[in-house]
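Follow-up to my post from last week.
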Amino acid sequence: MPHRTFISFIWPSALAMMLFIALPIISVAIQSLYIQHEQVIETVKNCGPFGCTESVVVNVEATEKIRAEQPLGRFNALGTYTNRNHLAFAEIAAAWKASANWSGFFAAITNLPFYKALFFTLSYTLVVTPLVILLGFFVALAVNRLPSIFKGPTIFFSLLPMIVTPLIGSLILFWMIDAKGIIGGSLQLLFDDPDLSLKASPTLTWITLFVYGVWHHAPFAFVVFYAGLQTVPKDILESAMIDGANRWQQIRHVVIPHLIPLGVFIALIQLMDNFRVFEPIVGFNASASATSLSWIIYNDLRTGDGTTLFGSAAATSMLTILGVAILLAPVLIRAWRANQRMA
Amino acid sequence: MARTVPTWLSILSLGFLVLWLLLAAFPFFWTLWGSFKVEADFFSKQNWTNAIFGVRTLAETGAHYTGAGYEGAWIKEEFWKASINTLVMTISVVAISLTLGTLGGYALSRSPFRYAFWILIIALVFRAMPHITLVSGYLFPFFELNLWGHLTTTIIVMVAINQPFTLWMLHSFFLNIPKDLDESALVDGCTRFQAFRYVIIPVMWPGVITTGLFSFLLAYNDFALTGLLLTEENQTMVPAIAGFLGSTQQQGNVMYAVAAVVSATAPLFVLVMFFQRQIVSGLTAGAVKG
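User reply:
Got it. Predicted complex:
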């Protein structure tokens, strides 16, 4: 296909991506260097019959004027990146000096908003991804053994947790684990503790979010593995049987090696999806004990008009994009090498 | 040749599967059932079985079932507006995404040059970025240009965000259509567009339907963009439900949210019922092409 024809086919799609993905990234990068104006503050002298008092007031008019003239805010260079709400260099240095041991240092760092969110995001990604692959694999093995009339309905019900809107799925589970809901109530009975609440303790909240993540993503791994199981070469399986391999050895030495490329694919997609974890934190109302990188961006942006923290959100966004780039680096390097070989 | 399966293994496997199905499907049926009860039953202090038998519902309304949650959500809180917005948004996003995506995906699958490969890699990077990282990039210019809050703006943004995925998916579908097909049309004197129009379009529908399903799901399920880019008036269903939660303290309002959640899940059920095969093939198509 000549270049000219190629361009005439791809330009609408390329233009859309340029305007609404590439350009916004640049816009985010620029915004992250600016910070919103401070309010113009004046000291006013009020004199009355009982003497004069000085009070500090906000000059609304002057503030509005500055904001209208320079809507982007004032230039702050990398100040937003290094402040307490982001990379917090000063606070880390102070914590390093103040803490006697590693665990104290670690506790001090995970109290800082950005590191707290980063820590949860990474934990979520690294806990949920392998569990999704394991659960999906075993469900696929089990479904594969079913008589074929049961396979359709089983797949239908298994798909539901994945298809449902993340916010809605987490709300449904959130209502069930409520102290007055079916799961929450049953757990109280089971542990004989009327005050047990999955929402109160940070650890239990984290576990709840992990469980939700596995529940939501396992169907994807299941479907991919199930499709992979249909293509396991029968003759290799049979020769393994003739050689006396037992059921587990067949799975271990024939089925799993066949499914490994699919496992890599699932892991890649899951790393990308879990790194952006956001809706469950809103749905489970969990932001007091667990925040993610996506959630702190949302939190900066949703504050009503006028006080939206564009600079702060932009800086977190840039750091998140950097995180994604690091996560994707192995894949990109492999693609680069493959391309070099091709040439 | 097949050996008989030991009984314990069959039972273990079946038991595991039943447990999984219970985990996967039960929450939906529970919530569907509970949405026809009053709050005191669905969130019962005394006994969770109240939610099944509707003890308080009977006492409060005189019947075993009540549609009060649905009435409150759809009529009082005007959820119907949100559902119309969702309908308009999803249909537009799917239609525009597929139009741009088929053209682009076709070109990518037929180009022998290296830049096609790099476009796909860039698309993969875009696909990996959390959508919300772009939102602060939208909000500021949209505020300045007075574009913020409109459904149209959100549709266009959603189409663009959808493109990387759509391109990848359709690209791999077009690779499966033999090159000889459109190249023989070129030999016969067609232009590329004619070859695309008369040879490719008639055979591309299975791939387009599958990709369309996933574009639909992306637009329908989104909260990161719709939650921040739309005014309250133009809200789609998901941010509207999130809005209900703000006022949960008031008696009865939780049931509005429960009813709205069930209403928003119903179309997805129907979708899976009719398009299960396409969804499964779509999920695996990416894997096979890897």
